[in-house]
Amino acid sequence: MRVQESYPVDVDAIRADFPILQRKVGGDISTPGEHDDDDTPLVYLDNAATSHTPEQVVDAIVDYYHGYNSNVHRGIHHLSQEASVAYENAHDRVAEFIGASGGREEVVFTKNTTESMNLVAYAWGLDELGPGDSVVMTEMEHHASLVTWQQIAKKTGAEVRYIRVDDDGRLDMEHAKELIDDSTKMVSVVHVSNTLGTVNPVSELADMAHEVGAYAFVDGAQSVPTRPVDVEDIDADFFAFSGHKMCGPTGIGALYGKRDILEEMQPYLYGGEMIRSVTYEDSTWEDLPWKFEAGTPPIAQGVGFAAAVDYLDDIGMENVQAHEELLAEYAYDRLGEFDDIEMYGPPGDDRGGLVAFNLDSVHAHDLSSILNEQGVAIRAGDHCTQPLHDKLGVAASTRASFYIYNTREEVDKLVDAIDTARELFA
Amino acid sequence: MGIGSDMYRQQIMDHYKNPRNHGRLESPTFTHTGENPSCGDTITMDVQLADDGETIERVAFSGDGCAISQASASMLTQRLPGTTLSELAEMDTDDITEMLGVDISPMRIKCAVLARQVAQDGAKIHDGEIEIEQTKTEGDDD
Ligand SMILES: Cc1ncc(COP(=O)(O)O)c(C=O)c1O
């Protein structure tokens, strides 16, 4: 094997865990699951939208349904107890993965990053924000936080402020210093930008927030899947991420919160599972994290989430990060060979594992359709960062995003497929 | 696969690269603009009616955006003259895909039908049936 060919992770072994990577595409899409007429090998480069799920995680979910499917915290019976233990332990496992020493009490399972954000916005923001207060975000914020805080600010009379993104796609930290002031109650920032690939100095921003007595909320949707993350090193007060972007199932995500802050907060959803005692007149709440998990939770998904974290830990998050960076740099270099390709964000050796770009004179949606016809799955659109695209002066961009199973050859296929579009539109 | 793309057949590429009736009419009977906010496709259609006030005589379009939206607008400017406003009102998505002569993937349908929607809304405003500033097709959810 040439040195050039080696990777920080065992790509062949990893690919074998993901049967979907072997499938072909291109046939009739109106019959999902029937692949007889598909003829084009899949090159999956849309991992920032969602990652695939390895056999190990699917097996954990199957084992749950075959072996101990039951509602949690309700039955005295055997199955319910097994399900409860597994679901509770999953919280501890995910907490450990992100360095939350408080364990389950600091990790609330939600549907996804978006719900985690809304939980804090409603449970904390509606009560605590008011006229004269400010929420500081960044210009590269995902709609999950941008729209949420924008709308909560409208309801409460608070102000939203955006830290400027400079021409290299990095945060203007001088501007951050100006914006974060005594009026600031929340600094809500994205850790790794899903559009620019920028890795933001979230620990520094958390310090700045704490200096003025504000909380720091980090959107880790793109960071937890791709690098070692320690929420206590960052000193985040809140931290959100999604299972489906990190080898886990859809329908589950997490909100980390410092225990004392979560304890102070009122519930966001009411109902079963989250109460300790109820009378016709009033109710009291369960302990953390159950106070924030009303109703029957996503139990199978929680079990799958923990299995995903096991899977990633086996590979090692340092290795995952190294693989991501290798592919990001390779893609940045290969796409950079062409004068008619404009890339957004910092240079190839200083970014997360994704590259958003535009090909001159070919609309992003045309490009992605042509890539799709060649089996290359990428994202085209505004990637839920519409204001950032407005700032970049483009309506849409095309984004390739990588994960542990991607290879340099797949990046080469992307480049070749772009060439087809270039010829077609020439 | 080579250069023979499924969706981007020669006819589409020809209309995209050499749009027909591109520009503005001098004295349109009505004119209307629409956009796909999420794609950034915009199209303005100028429509000139015959003296009967019902038959479409000339159509021109301007705007920019993806190949599908622009080619569809170009083809429509050739297709519409000679038809009546009520025939225009009845045009549906199938008529557009038939006109384009290719299968349009579901995610791209709104690009393909933008020009038709703009023409139809323009006609309705002209008839006083609706009052809108601009046509906006549903944004995609990304
Ligand atoms: C940076 C960032 N934040 C938030 C989200 C929202 O994640 P979800 O759709 O899982 O809630 C995403 C992904 O779509 C993202 O990339």
UniProtKB/TrEMBL annotation, chain B:
GO molecular function, one term: iron ion binding
GO biological process entries: iron-sulfur cluster assembly
Residue ranges of every copy of the NIF system FeS cluster assembly NifU N-terminal domain listed in the record: 7-125
Residues forming coiled coils: none
Pfam short name (any one): NifU_N
Superkingdom, taxonomy of origin: Archaea
The protein, known as: Nitrogen fixation protein NifU-like protein
Record organism: Haloferax gibbonsii (strain ATCC 33959 / DSM 4427 / JCM 8863 / NBRC 102184 / NCIMB 2188 / Ma 2.38)
